[in-house]
Amino acid sequence: MAICRxxxxxxxxxxxxxxxxxxxxxxxxLASCSGQDRSEQPLPPRTLASGGPKPxxxxxxxxRHADLSFRVKPDSRSIEGVAKLDFGxxxxxxxxxxxLDPELEVSAVRIxxxxxxxxxxxNPDGLLRIRLPHKAPAGGHVTAEIRYAGKPHVAKKAPWxxxxxxxxxxxxxxxxxxxxxxxxxxxxxxxxxHPDAEPAWVDLHITVPxxxxxxxxxxxxxxxxxxxxxxxxxxxxxxxxxxAIAITVGPYAVLRARYHSVRYDxxxxxxxxxxxxHRTQAQRLFTTIPRMVAFNESIIGTYPWGxxxxxxxxxxxxxxxxxxxxxxxDGYPIDPWGFDWLLQHEFGHEWFGNQLTxxxxxxxxxxxxxxxxxxxxxxxxLKGDADYYAWMHQARLRIHNKGxxxxxxxxTSAALDDMKHGGxxxxxxxxxxxxxxxxxxxxxxxxxxxxxxxxVYGRPDPKPGNFTPRYATTxxxxxxxxxxxxxNLGWFFxxxxxxxTLPVLEQKRVGDTLRLRWKTxxxxxxxxxxxxxxxxxxxxxxxxxxxxxxxxxxxxLVTIDPHSKVLRADPxxxxxxxxxxxxxxxxxxxxxxQQASASSRTND
Length: 604
Fold this sequence. Notes:
Blueprint: H1 45-48, H2 56-59, E1 61-73, E2 78-89, E3 93-99, E4 105-111, E5 114-115, E6 121-122, E7 127-136, E8 141-150, E9 163-168, E10 174-179, E11 201-208, E12 219-227, E13 230-238, E14 248-249, E15 252-261, E16 266-275, H3 279-286, H4 289-299, E17 310-314, E18 319-320, E19 326-328, H5 341-348, E20 356-358, H6 365-383, H7 385-396, H8 413-417, H9 430-443, H10 445-457, E21 470-472, H11 474-485, H12 490-496, E22 504-510, E23 513-519, E24 530-534, E25 537-541, E26 547-551, E27 558-560, H13 571-582, H14 591-603
Parallel strand pairs: 1-11, 16-17, 17-19, 20-21
Antiparallel strand pairs: 1-2, 2-8, 3-7, 4-5, 4-8, 6-7, 9-10, 10-14, 11-13, 12-13, 15-16, 18-19, 22-23, 23-26, 24-25, 24-27
């Protein structure tokens, strides 16, 4: 999940290129019926960004059901869609406002079964405005049926930018995937493109050419003949995150099994839709899923979608947390961690992102920071502290501090991504994970993991069937932590999430005394305890007023924070990042070394 176009996207870790054997270039663009294909042109500003303040007409709606039909046409890189949308009405509305990329042309609209004239709707900028025949009263409902078609926006580098990927498998068969996280659901279907606008239920009917399959969200209700070898796959999903509704098409085979939860004594269907010819790699990866899920159940709580499935699908892009059908396209590497980091990350989003959804893009670290932290936690479980701290060290080198990780005001996805103008960018991943690491050290494992459970489920005792998907904000999490710990830790979150810069630990030696003082960018108190190792003795300084001191005789070896518990400013890291920025392709090679390298190549 996530954002950071050009930096990082809907998952974490350290990306690697896809294997060449997995992907061939997509087919050439075909002219649209108007003679102009705009599927690879820049998106209009409203379509480019997801979230932001809702118009009153959207805020007045309760999204009950979306019945979505797609006919996917790889040869022309186009789709035909019918969206049947059912809304409860919380306040009177006379106009239905929906988000839809204007490149997807609307041909017909019905409201409560009544066909509307073409003059009743318009969509010049990505906000589809439909004038209702009659004002919908509070307490009522309104249904809309919208027919549309076109060439959906093409992602140039999915999933770092949103859109469709039209590819071919190694043997030339169509391979299609959608990834629309920061740009939002309006690249595919008419929706309310906001994190808190999840439909209660979604039915997907995906019609595909002969020989192809369409794995989808939720439970497979059936596969029907659509004529001339085409087939329609019907999927039924419960309250999916809007950007997690996916279209994936390809020549798939499928592995099936059942996951038995020892902790919760329930069984969950498992599916992996993989490209034909990749069975050996797919089988190896598939067998690792139960252990990942069991680990998450042990530290967070029951798998949230046990009534649906544990699912994944091989895609022509690296990955995305598509609810119950997680996209995976990393090429089946062998990693030194003993697990596939991408797969583990995407499954983490079933808890942080799909079960728990941020109420606003400003709180996106609730998706990405928490899920990013699951990789070092899983490594710590599998192999111990060395791998845990290796993950944390790599994450530390990717913290930028350009803007608050959880900005206090609502934001669009585009603003959150814009580090040049104060957006946190990929800090929602790596700084978010470090904030959680520091919080864990401050409050202890018991309180920390209890806070994860209550954040995700809204209760401390989740069991299959006793919870529903929920929205939350950063302030909600702060309230949870304060209640569990019995402390007011607002100072902690103010310093790490609401402020861009990191706390600085100033050091001053006076004789045999080492004096320490916290300095923060916002100037507020920061009573963060810190450990100091002097020789073979470790002393914890409470720093209650932001200062502390310890006896450290001259010549004694002194290490501040010897167990790396506390996130703070580090001049060495800042110097390294500045160096990397100045030398993005690597350090300059001195002339003598260039000559030596040339001689070596000659001798070879």
